[in-house]
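Q: I'm writing up a methods section and want to include an example of the input and output format. Could you take the sequence below and give the corresponding predicted structure tokens, formatted cleanly so I can copy it straight into the document?
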Amino acid sequence: MRQSKVRFIGITGGIGAGKTEILNYIQRHYKCEIYLADRVAEQLQEPGTACFQALVELLGEDVKSPDGRIDRGRMSERIFSDPALLERVNAIVHPAVREFLLERLDDAASAGEAELFFVEAALLIECGYREIVDELWYIYADRQVRSRRLEEQRGYSRDRISRIMSCQLPEEKFRECCDFVIDNSGTLEESYRQIDRRLEAFTWRE
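A: Here is the clean output for your methods example:
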């Protein structure tokens, strides 16, 4: 476990669990920095980066779109139909994301302004973040609640929801690997109270 005066917390959970709302609340009320691993990965794949070059070398020039960036749809089609290729892409992207986050954590500790440092991703457990965070939080919501949210808020079909959920870790594995569980099946106010109890040792701001 990494030692730092800034508490490093990973946020994970299944699709539709409400991780974004939880993080928005934390961002408003605590002295923290928050990073979304997927967005960091996109940033690290911009032209001119080491990740970009490595991915183009692996996947070929035709993975690029006319504007010179990686065509994410084209890349997804290729890697998700080829498990071996997906593994090689992950071996490029995931270590780069971890390195970026650890550098930002060191920067946050040096600056002395943040008390908490969060990273959110659905795959934190699979990507080995248990080894580097101080705490891992599981944002839980009942499957029916999650399905309803995805239908109403994102317009997902039931078939799409079922396929996505079947590819994610089961609830038992999330609970086994995480230090703290927020039940986000009810109202947001109920979830906020759970957060505040967990973070009562840290500075609250209105």
